[in-house]
Amino acid sequence: MNRRLAVLLPLLLLTPVGSRADALFQSTRPITACADARWVVRVQTDSQCFAVTPDQRWQRISTRNGLLLLRRTPAVAGEPPLYFRRADVTRSIPPAAAAEPAARLPITRAFRQAAAVLRRSRAHEGSDVGGLGLLFLLLAAGTAAGARAAYPRMKRNRALRIARAEIAAQQQALRIRRLQLVTVDHYGTEELDRWSKEKEKFCRTRIVKRLDSKGLSSQWPLISKKVDAQIERSAAKTAITGERRPKQFQSDPQVFHPNMDPLDYERHCALLLRRSGWDARATGASGDQGTDVIAHRNGKYFVLQCKLYNHPVGNNAVQQASAARLHQRADWAAVVSNANFTTSARQLAETNSIYLLHHEQLQAFDPVWQDQDYTCIRQRSSRKAGA
User: What is the DSSP letter of 15?
Assistant: First the structure.
């Protein structure tokens, strides 16, 4: 008796999980099934007979007079277990099981090895070889069961490695896109809608496609949250000195370049102010009555008009900065550029107390001290005019 149990136990472990549960069936064509076996045989129609379609799944309960008694899964209210002819139904194979036959390979191999040992043990009944065969069978069953349990986790980890490799390859592009798409509203809250759509597009066009090419698309719902967190971590990293640049130029708000996008230049100026302690944000493509960047610190407001030019900046930029200061009721205003300023622009800026700055001056710029310098300049100019 003990030997029979020792043989049956590993056989139970080796049996795939789906085959130990009640089998699932589906109809081969649209049919009518009834709650009474007699009506099925006589092909009668009654209130206890129901239409069955091939897309429905049914679980076996028992058999009676050659008929299968099946219940609907998932259950439907008001629908009892029904009788089916065997010729009208076939076993239902889950898509995952059909797509992943490799999951049973280690189990089948272990079973064959154990069965061979068992046959040899029968030829030596009464010797120690029989006991060794049963022991090997138990060990093989345990190994197979462990392999079956570990296989889904191995697939999930492989899919996660593929996703992380793609994120690492696109880290620079993701970081730049986050800087370009995430804006801050007037209350200091980050607006993430456009960035969220960009992440969805990246996952759909890059990661899911790579998983699909490896036969791992079914793992995406299981790893999507971890992938999203990995994208956020990679996109939040700052630029690295000597970072490999793409073959084609790509505008980056963290790194100044004369050919960068003008909107990225505004974001670059806002970043420089934030590094020196200002709470600064770029207003975006729409602007705000001439305000490209608005910043505040210690209750004081500072507005910027940003000009990425390859020629000197003229009066128009100074007029825009003056209007922006008035509209925003700011304390200071400046025109920031990578280029020089015309003589007339400097004269107009001095008259209207508008600062003219190169973007590299932003981190060290302090309007409080600069106000004192402007006052001294005006006093000297007044004395010269009086003379």
Answer: S
Residue 353 φ/ψ region, left for φ over 0, alpha for ψ in the -120 to 50 degree band, beta for the rest = left
3-state secondary structure 105-173: HHHHHHHHHHHHHHHHHHHCCCCHHHHHHHHHHHHHHHHHHHHHHHHHHHHHHHHHHHHHHHHHHCHHH
Domains and CATH numbers, the chain: 2-92 (no CATH), 101-237 (no CATH), 262-386 (3.40.1350.10)
- The sign one gets for the Cα dihedral 370, 372, 376, 379 is positive
What is the distance in angstroms between the CA of the first residue and the CA of the last residue of the chain? 124
- The token duo for 235 is 């996109």
Report pTM: 0.42
Cβ-count burial of 287 within 10 angstroms (0-12 exposed, 13-18 middle, 19+ buried)? middle
Q: Is 76 exposed, middle or buried (0-12, 13-18, 19+ CB in 10 A)?
A: exposed
* pLDDT, tens only, 321-345: 999 999 999 999 999 998 889 999 9
Note whether 328 and 291 are within 8 A (CB): yes
